[in-house]
Amino acid sequence: MSGSGAAPAYDGVPPADAARRLLVETSERGTTPAGGAAEAVGARAADECRGPGGPACTGRGRPGVPLRVTLALGALTVVVGSTVLALGSPSRDPFLAAGDTAAGSYLATRADGDQAAAAVLAGPYKERPAPPVTARPGGGRTAPLPASRPLIAAPAAPSPPIGALFSPGDDGDPTHHCTASVVHAPAGDLVVTAAHCVHDGGFRTRLVFAPGLHDGIAPYGLWVPTRIHVDPRWISDRDPDHDVAFLRVRRAGWADGRIEDITGAERIRFDAPAGRPALLTGYPVDRDSPVSCRHTADAQGPTQLRFPCPGFPNGTSGGPMLTDLDRATGTGSLIGVIGGLEEGGDDLTSYSCRFGADVAALYRRATSEPGPRPAQPGSRAAADGVRPRAAPRS
Description:
With about 400 residues, the chain is α+β, with helices and mostly antiparallel strands. It is about 20% helix and about 20% strand. It has helices at about 15-25, 35-40, 70-80, 85-90, 110-120, 230-235, 260-265, 355-365, 380-385, and strands spanning about 95, 105, 125, 155, 160-165, 175-180, 190-195, 205, 210, 215-220, 225-230, 245-250, 265-270, 275-280, 290-300, 305, 320-325, 335, 350-355.
């Protein structure tokens, strides 16, 4: 069953308690500018980012401050009034949908996607088409990945398959809240990010991916989901071992489109051994260009990877962890995305769930649907250079 547009209630929590929780948890990570409300009340800890009534969480957890008790007492007073019930009702958020919770999927509507893209373009962002990526794979030659010196995330050149993920509302502020990347798939239309970037008390119905974003320019267009896939265990209890999501996407304003033909794609690798050199990339919420760091993707227990490099702030959740970078294309083997433990980590360390059998099964489910139709000769997409096929990628 596809999403109905109404968000689910808090699991088993009475409306009054849900309302009280919503008022207590007033800060969504990574969505409030510096000096705003989040700074006033303190950002929420990682295990608390689950209120569906606000902007999407980024997963970069921060410790809370002891104003929680004061807020709770104030909330208890307000609960007596009827207005708090309205505030606490997640069904009033027009941009969340229940989707198919048993399968862990959401079938996005065309209108939601196009309206979300229009909201991004109504802000400071513009599309300015760049030529499709045409570099051929480097014949197995990989680039060295020595650890960054100093060991801290630093500004990096945009990479066509990696971009910012927006979740615009009606407030006129289309700030991107997460990072995503194009991953190779038979249909050429697959994007990967963290589950907490797309499902936070319900599926985010307004999502926009801008690959290669820089300086307010979306050089490869804006792309919106046709379907979102997460593991049902993420929906039921936010299991950090399943903090991964795959999105089938189309070009905003069109019914179909192969993003991989335009941007290229990262390869995906399952069951990669820990301890390998890797490149981690993400888009901070307060800038339109990425940061990256090279280090080793170490084991954090049997189901998680840890990447000890500071400098990945709010907004970088969902960013790709790559090994075996191709010298010619700059693409690599995707072994994780920022998420997992603490929904991404803290100022010093980033985490990812390990891409094992469960993520492989989720990938197969996401790629099992029919792919988009190719652009027809004479169509606008073919005429404006949006969809010419690039060289095949491994």
